[in-house]
Amino acid sequence: MPRNWGQRIQRTIRADLLLRLALCACVVGLLLFAANAGGVSSAIQTGFGHIVAGILNLFGEDASIVGNTVQTERFGITVVTACTGLFLTGIFAAAVILFPATWRAKTLGLGLGVGGIFLLNVIRLVSLYYIGVYLPSILETAHLLVWQSVLIGAAVILWLVWAGTWGRTSCREATR
Description:
Radius of gyration: 20 Å
Shape: elongated
Low-confidence stretches: none
């Protein structure tokens, strides 16, 4: 094996790692910007509110949305930045990007993970509405303890499934 060949592989691996770190920093920076920029954060909160209101309306709740608050005659919920899953999505995205896998596998992991976190978060918000209507005494516990734990656990499981199924790769494949 020529010495030059080994040095090229090391440079390629280092370049790939630097690219992954830079991309990870960009994704995390973008999510932090979205979470802290008033207009962007507000739009994301309102978007989640519209989705939740639409689902509640499918169930006959006659929900309306004002800003980031979903309101019915029976109960209302306000979607704040912490309720959007942005931070969890950022951590998941960073874990996928930094894991040594092909870019195709990373794209698949990001799509499945971000989509899964989004879907579970919508289910969470709808369920919290109904918990607030029917079991208001446990709303705080369900909101802060149960659902936060479920979301974090689901994100970890999604990542583990992705890493174990599609994330396996050799160093040579990971640099492609």
